[in-house]
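Technical note accompanying the year-one report. For the benefit of new consortium partners, we illustrate the data format agreed upon in the data management plan: each record pairs a sequence with a structure-token string. No post-processing was applied to the example shown here.
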Amino acid sequence: MNTNKLKAVRIEKGHTQKSLARIIGMSEKTYNRKELGLIEFTGKEILIISNTLNLTMDMVNEIFFENKLTKCISENTARQA
């Protein structure tokens, strides 16, 4: 997970860790640990964050999956060709 990118986008969109934690329904401490990369976000939490911060699919891929989704899609497309 790209923790620095998530933090930057969160701040840019005017959210604090506390505000996102409240929206997701978790404690600020838990959110902090997730944003630091100590605990993984669940798929549902990623969806809530992406909707709240208006993230594009590319941004979700970059922040939460370190561009592994793009690589996976590219490899599958190459195999099918």
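Partners are asked to follow this layout when depositing records. Helices lie at 3-12, 17-24, 28-35, 43-52, 57-65, 68-80.
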